[in-house]
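Sharing a chain and its predicted structure for anyone who wants a worked example. Both blocks are below, sequence first, tokens second.
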Amino acid sequence: MEKVFARVADYFSVLSEPSRLRIMYAVCSGEKSVSEVIELCGSSQANVSRHLSALHKAGILLRRKEGTTVFYSIADNATVEMCQTVCAKMAESLH
């Protein structure tokens, strides 16, 4: 079980960055190009690219290249559902 716990901790560490949650929120409505994600998140290209890479490496996002444009989409709907549930709970506690 120790290996499982270590992998779960690594997985949650990927999700512990607010910018990554913002990116997931932007992409959960459908596939987006990197430039669309940058516009929706209001962050720099370098910052968004770094976080997209981490989310892709963790298996949370899929990546597709068309010409020179890279598109990202959700690979793992269970993670999106979990994040939506936690975000709703946190939003509820703020009111």
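Comments welcome. The first strand starts at residue 32 and ends at 33.
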